[in-house]
Amino acid sequence: MATLIDLAESPVRELNQALHEAPSASWRVLNPRGAHAVACGIRDNLTVDVEGHVGYYCAGMNQHATVTVHGNAGTGVAENMMSGTVRVRGNASQSAGATGHGGLLVIDGDASARCGISMKGVDIVVGGNVGHMSAFMGQAGRLVVCGDAGEALGDSLYEARIYVRGTVKSLGADCVEKEMRAEHLAELAELLKAAERDEDPAGFRRYGSARQLYHFKVDNTAAY
Amino acid sequence: MCGIVGLHLREPSLEPRLGELLAAMLGQVVERGPDSAGVAVYGDPWLSPPGQAVVSLLGTSKAEVATALPGTVAIDADATTVVHAGVDQLAAALPEATVIGSGEGFAVLKGAGNPVALAESFGLADVTGWQGIGHTRMATESAVTPEGAHPFSVGAGQCLVHNGSFANHATIRRELRAQGVEFDSENDSEVGARFIAHHLAQGADLEKALKLLCERFDGFYTLLVSTGDSFAVVRDAIACKPALVAETDAWVAMASEYRALDVLPGIENARIFEPEPEEVYVWRR
Asked: How high is the ipTM of this complex?
């Protein structure tokens, strides 16, 4: 039986404190009504269901927990998550999964601009579209987009890998399309399965860094 | 930061609740702009009776208006005085006062201080009408004064609220001044409002004026622009500043954050979306 917390009655700070102390494994949060920082900083293997739309930074810094938002999420959902699973049943605003180090972020709907900005190992699966500059400066991890990607996808990318099923409006600096080999199809199949999606991996294209931007060019040695 | 809220009613039965809903929305974006606030309200029969020229002023009072123009209706709302008279007549009678809005069918109310206290002081909850926009300000480009608060209303019935900052406002202000446009302040948002009013006066429609603004202005902006019949939203090329639109058969609303939309009746069935960068959205009455 889930422990119930109604944000119409308790402040977010009380909710987060309770989640950090974690006497219960299962939680249900009612009436988030766009509140910021809901279910942030959890360190344990809890299940948290948030019934409604949340504001900024929901499930930020998550470790081990499974947080599901049954609604839309504002800016920076699951920012800097370390592990566990964060799922948004609706749409997510900008900078979803920003700087995430690990775990899985699933957005069933669309994610807007800068999804996975500076991702550092997190896996992100978006059921719909992503906005412009997604995976900007992505260092590690995988971004899977089942819909379309906006402008400047993967701009200034390091080693994050990107899979897109639909169209890509434009690629950012140093981001290129790459061959989809067997190991990529296998990892994509795994990610889609983890996100409970049934798209065929064969329908995706892979994008990654051309590695021209972040390596020091020996031609520039003379400048020093 | 700064917070923006706006409500354009389609369902006339909600008009008695315009001010109450706008005040509730404004109360949700106080943390985004605790310095000062302002609203523009369209269609309140007390502030702006139908067919009556209305001027909103700073730097005067009901008592001063009574002395300068005996028999003229004037309403004090915090730092603002709303006067039922023509703008030329008032400019002559009260040359020291600053006009912050003029035209028929709308009034602009501004003040410095906490937005919730200001909404109370404006008597916003009792205001009725068909459209309202509001702003809570965290000042960056100019001082915290009622004059620096938004909305900026520089053409008949037109209002603009802005979250962000324009980088090239000084250049554009110089260009507009060279074309004879006069300015009240050094505020960057006023330049945006003057630019739009200038192009509307030259015959552009609101969509065109906002597209021209996107071409000419550099910087960060989410803008909500209202006129005597329209409600429009536009964001800069990289959508730096937040914006959400919600729409039902009864209303269209825009806010910086979802929590400000959550106070609206029927929000659970609204279509909610983020405006795309540099796309102009206009709703007409």
From this structure: 0.90
